Structures are given as structure tokens and as C-alpha cells.
Queue: 2 jobs
Job 1
Amino acid sequence: MDIGIGEPLCDVSRVVADFTGDGRDDSALVGMEGRNGRCIDAAKGTEIVAMDTTGDGLPDGGYFVNAGCLMCRAYAAADLDADGIPELIVLHQNSATPVYELIDAFVRTTQEGTSLVPIMIGSDAPQMGLSAGQGVTLTAGGDEGSSFAIGCEGSPDSPIVVQWRSQHPVDGAGSDVRDVYETKLSITGTQATVVDSQHTAQPTSVPLPFDSLDSSGCGVQWFPPE
Ligand SMILES: [Ca+2]
Ligand SMILES: [Ca+2]
């Protein structure tokens, strides 16, 4: 697919929803940037998110670019800030611990001027590995020593997104105790605010306060990915 950036958009996936709030469906498109005019056979690359708000099948308005796509795709639409308009959720990296991006379609005066803006964290959130001003990423699933889950409280009226993370050394000193981090985010427009942050330690023999293999909330199935 040629979207006018000089390179084709490859492996295009889409989510259809009214992202602009005008009552007509829009298509969010996610694909990988080609190289030298053609699609490359690679699992990793630069992710491009674009939006068709006019229904002609081709992107118009702005597009958002992020490196590090690992089997990325348009994933879901969910209203995370209760303003009645869904946000776009992109699966940025698909693995045993899938990573999601949250993207807001910021409507300018004309539909064609719609911008795609990552929802950014307003302050440092080291427990999520994020610094102020970075795009929010959410992680689910688990692998050896680390597990994650994404939840949601207060949906649909006043949703709070919850990110859990647990880790412990796989063996050796400290392997019998794990750290558990719980971070709660309130989203408004293109900004996420940390409204609560907890860190506890517990023996590995004690069950986790979340289920890393079954994560859903805010109308989104986070793990396993759909
Ligand atoms: Ca629309
Ligand atoms: Ca919204």
C-alpha cells in the first residue's frame, strides 16, 4: 500500500471504529515500512500507524512512526478516558510478553487534519520503565522470572488502567522472593497520569495478585492476544 511516504506500507492490519467522533467509521491502519520501494521479509522494523477518515481506503491525515515493531498490528479500539471516543490500541511487539501502545486520534479543524498522537506519561514512572513525556506502553503475559498483567478499574465511567509487574531472580540469591509493582494510570486526551504506585515483596510461594495468563479490562483482551 502506497501512503505517500516514499515507501510502501507492508503487512497492513486495520481496526475500524469512529476514532474522530463524527459518527462515521474510520480505519486505523498499522503496517511496517518497506525498504527501497518494496516490502522486506523481516519480523522487525519500523511501525507506521495511519488513519483513513474519509473512507476511500487510503490513509489521510497524519501518521505516527515508531521503531521496534515485532509483528506489530492494529489491535483494538477502546475508550480509555471516557470521553465517548475510542483510542487506538496497537500491538507493538508480539511475544510471550506482548507490548501495547495507546494512540489518540487528535482531531483538528478538518477531518483530513487528524493527527495520531501517542498517549504520553506525564511524570516519570520507573516501575513501568517510563520517563516523563514517553509514550505509554503496557505489557502483559510472562516469561521466566517476569510476569505482567493489564487491568482496568472503574470502566466505563471513569476508567483507571492498571499495570502489574512481578519479577524475581530465576535462581540463586533472592530467587525465593519476588517484587510486585502495581501502577494505576488515569488517561485524559493524550496524557496519562500516575494516580497510584505500589511496590511490595512477597515469597514466590505466595500466588501473585494478578493472572499473567488471563488479562482483560477496559473492553480489551490483553492476554492472550486475540
Ligand atoms: Ca469518524
Ligand atoms: Ca477516549
Job 2
Amino acid sequence: MLTRSPHPSCIECGKSMSDSGFDFHYGLRQNGPAYWSDEGVICSHVCAAAHFSRRRTDGREMKEPAAEPILPVAPFVRR
Ligand SMILES: [Zn+2]
């Protein structure tokens, strides 16, 4: 189950999304994480490779893409 804390952490190395070095989609924090699985967010391509390799070894490969764990921040709309 995904963590719903304000600063989720990488499920492989524990790096918080608030730490420097966490990869965001197109490099923009407001776009959300660049990598994730059905188990949570992942900080980098290195941790993503480790995560999916470990799951393959454990026989727990994902069968379909996981839903986005964190929705992007909606832009402010003036009405
Ligand atoms: Zn990581």
C-alpha cells in the first residue's frame, strides 16, 4: 500500500521526496515522481532498476502499470 505522508520516501533506499537528488517527472517537483510502482515511489533510475530486478527475482513482477501515486499539483485557476 502506498504511503500517504506529505513526504513519501523511496521504497528502495528510503530517500525522501523532499531530499535533493530525488528524480521528478521532467525535473519538476510539481509533476510528481519520475518513477514508481504499485508499492510506492522510487527516487531514481538506479533504484527503479534494483526494485524491478528484485521483484523479478522474487517472482512478483508487476502485471500492469501502476496508477500514478501522487497527482500533479493543479495550477491555480482564477475565476
Ligand atoms: Zn531510492
